[in-house]
Amino acid sequence: MYQLLDFNTKDVVTTDDFVFAGETSPWEVQMDIEHIRRKINLDYFVSAAPCLSKYLPLMPIQEPANFVSLRESATPLVKSKVLGKELGIDLYFKVEGKNPTGSFKDRGSAVDISIAKELGAKGVILASTGNMAASCSCYAAAAKMPCFIVVPEGVSMSKLAQVISFGGKIIQVKGSYNDAANLAYKIAKSRKFFLAGDYAFRVEGQKTGAFEVIDQLLFQVPDEVIIPVGCGTNITAYAKGFAEYKDLGLIHKIPRLVGVQSTGACSLVNAFDKKAKHLEPLERADTIATAIAVPFPIDGDKAIDAIYQTGGEASAVSDTDMLKAQYYLSTQEGLFVESASAATVAHLFKKKEQGLIKPGQRVVCVLSGEGLKDPSVVLKSAIQPPIIYPNEKDFDKLYDSNFFDNKTMVFVEKDQVLFRDMPNPTQTKEALENLFGANYNDDLIAKVQSCIERFLAKGRAIHISDLQDIVQDAMEMVDITRSDILKVVSFKVTTGQDKIAEAEVTVELNGQLYYASNKGVGPVDAIIQALCKACPSEIQYQLTDYKVQIRGQGADAVVYVEMKLIKGSQNSVGKAVSPDIIQASVEAFIDAYNIAHPV
Ligand SMILES: *Cc1c(COP(=O)(O)O)cnc(C)c1O
């Protein structure tokens, strides 16, 4: 029915354990197409709607009863409403996020886990960048098999939550995806676990994606299929699916396959540019799109072969372009997909810019995963929504200040330095216009200026990403020209090894100074205690919620602080950003105090 081949030598291979891969060379499953042709009714194939049972004869499953299926596949092929017209092409999106665990991996996991069960493995192990883990742990749970998962440290919490919910046993390793894959391989060999993941059998499930595209287009073959590439397994699967349909005589040509990577992890593109047949490993992968953050694709040799065989290409897009495409898909096409999936559309935009779109072509973008898989990526570019009291006045204030005309997402190369020295108000206004498309009034610009001044006073240049935080901060600041607001005049904190921290603070209200000092378990605690004491209000404050976010990396990262003060039944939320956590805490406190004391 099928045999296993070494992909590079094409020798027939076997194994007495559950690892279906060579140490250095991938294996592949070769189906007996003649046998399949005799078994299936091609007329039925052309007329039946896409569903798994239809494709089962093309999969290496011995007993259909053993097949562990959770209704993966039969995902929508959606015709583009906007982008296709804009590009002058016949564009479709294969929405793979609609699979049970939110990515196309489920097609492969169904076969992978079914084979593991059929062969009687006592457990499954795999490496993953996140989605593979979510998918395999789900199918392993359905098959009642233990599932061990090795992931590189830093995988999105939402993906890990999915794995944990399915009972997967996660090990995070300090290393890349490839380090995780090498470890999983060794453990599978020594402990006789089934090695799931991007190996021979997975392709046999994932190739149904290609079958479906053809079925859904009523056997009209697209000119091009664009696929995001991580390990290169899915593009390999599409190539195999189209080839098998052609061998069965169901189609007469094969689409060009385009593999898209991030510029931060583009070993396939490097090989393609050099017309090489083998991929060179990268030192590391650097991209926000974790699903394709792979320095050395396991199926890279297969993927590049698929691209050459079909006359396709390999293409790299930047993270920023991916995020923009992701936002475009959501807002224009109503499709919220993972950033890795949006790489396909970012590629089309790149081609448009280069004037290389061929008009009238039929193109399919494989939108590989669901947007909710990694919301943190989206939130990083998002302008945080304002928090107001539940009254109309506060809404009107935002509405009338044209707040809702601003962009809600800002895509920037975060690290770029914007100001080293204090800009004048016009420069600030221009920078904000360019970045946020916003035309802010002088009042807000004045607030932004005061925030910038405080940043620069700390010896920290203003990066583009800071400005986003600063504007948010400024938007929610009370009117700084009001004379009756509380201001900090000075503060000082001392702390040291095994010492209680002490803080002193002087604040000013209506021209009068108030001073207090206090101790705390740490510097932040000490300063908050001192502020509480110094506040010229006889009402006691209770600090209930103190949140800190570090924005960016490195010791000079910006700190965002949010705190909630409670005064009787009223509460107020203060927020601030600063490169200095103590200062951010002080400013957030003052902010909350002033909000609680409206004129
Ligand atoms: C796994 C994955 C990819 C990459 O696919 P490969 O088969 O590893 O090339 C792309 N997008 C999503 C959402 C994925 O889960």
Automatic annotation (TrEMBL):
GO MF terms held by the record: 2-isopropylmalate synthase activity; L-serine ammonia-lyase activity; threonine deaminase activity; threonine synthase activity
GO biological process: isoleucine biosynthetic process; L-leucine biosynthetic process; L-serine catabolic process; L-threonine catabolic process; threonine biosynthetic process
Broad enzyme group: lyase
Entry-linked Pfam families: LeuA_dimer, PALP
UniProt keyword list: Lyase, Pyridoxal phosphate, Transferase
Names of the cofactor(s): pyridoxal 5'-phosphate
Modified residues (N6-(pyridoxal phosphate)lysine): 105
Keyword Transferase: yes
Domain 2-isopropylmalate synthase LeuA allosteric (dimerisation): 479-597
Alphabetical list of InterPro entries matching this protein: 2-isopropylmalate_synth_dimer, LeuA_allosteric_dom_sf, Ser/Thr_Dehydratase, Thr_synthase-like, TrpB-like_PALP, TrpB-like_PALP_sf
Keyword Lyase included in the entry's annotation: yes
UniProt EC number: 4.2.3.1
Family: Belongs to the threonine synthase family.
NCBIfam families: thrC
PANTHER family reported in the protein's UniProt record: L-THREONINE DEHYDRATASE CATABOLIC TDCB, THREONINE DEHYDRATASE, MITOCHONDRIAL-RELATED
Name listed for the protein in its UniProt record: Threonine synthase
Organism: Cysteiniphilum litorale
